[in-house]
Write a structure and sequence with these properties.
heterodimer, A: mainly beta, four-stranded antiparallel beta sheet, 11 strands, B: mainly beta, six-stranded mixed beta sheet, five-stranded antiparallel beta sheet, about 55% strand, globular
């Protein structure tokens, strides 16, 4: 089945520890995104990538890092500099179709908690 | 940055009733999207709107792209228990410049349907 796979489903982080969330897509989409979701709030953009080996900061990039070495993969690292990392993290992708807008499709998320 | 105001924040309705929710923006968008999110899962795209004034249906769902490009609404007719979830609107500026592909989300409408 084609889709976006996020892993793990649940993740626990100790103080001072970096953790990496995985996002893989087999939709052949060029663009990929990471969002953070907190209770009672809409999704907020952390980082996005329009093409391999390129990525841009979103609205809340501080304390996070990403890489885009392969088209199908866009891992997110939550660093120890992120002081409030407890949240639901969502990865999305979309076709990069030049002048046309294509909607983003989401994975099922990773819930990160602090130990 | 751009903000979307989505209302109402929550709704409690009886099965069979119709539902209406809307989003307004301080600035224009070129695309409006409506997503539904079930607990512990990622948002699923319901309807995408690409032209001002466009009215689009998907089964019992109907959404409209406001003429001013600053608002959109979603109607659900004859609600059923499986309509329960969080509904999000999202605006997208579209291709070009630094805003390419980025979505701005509303805060969400929590829908509860009583059998």
């Amino acid at each position: 089945d084609g889709g976006i796979t996020q892993s793990p489903k649940y993740l626990f982080r100790k103080e001072g520890q970096n953790v990496t969330l995985s996002c893989e897509q087999n939709l052949n989409h060029d663009a990929m995104y990471w969002y953070r979701q907190d209770p009672g709030q809409g999704l907020r953009l952390i980082y996005y990538s329009q093409i391999v080996n390129d990525f841009q900061k979103g609205d809340i990039a501080e304390g996070y890092s990403v890489s885009r070495e392969k088209k199908e993969s866009f891992p997110l690292t939550v660093t120890s500099a992120q002081k409030n990392p407890t949240a639901f993290y969502l990865c999305a992708s979309s076709i990069d179709s030049g002048g046309l807008d294509q909607p983003q499709h989401f994975g099922d998320g990773t819930r990160l908690s602090i130990l | 940055g751009q903000q979307l105001n989505q209302s109402p924040q929550s709704m409690f309705i009886q099965e069979g009733e119709d539902v209406s929710m809307n989003c307004t923006s301080s600035s224009i968008f070129n695309t409006w999207l409506w997503y539904k999110q079930d607990p512990g899962e990622g948002p699923v795209l319901l309807i995408a709107l690409y032209k001002a004034g466009e009215l689009t249906s998907n089964g019992r769902l109907t959404a409209q792209f406001g003429i001013t490009r600053k608002d959109s609404f979603l109607n659900i007719s004859a609600s059923i228990p499986s309509d329960v979830g969080i509904y999000f609107c999202a605006g997208q500026l579209g291709a070009g410049g630094t805003s390419y592909g980025k979505l701005t989300f509303g805060q969400g409408t929590i829908l509860t349907v009583h059998p």
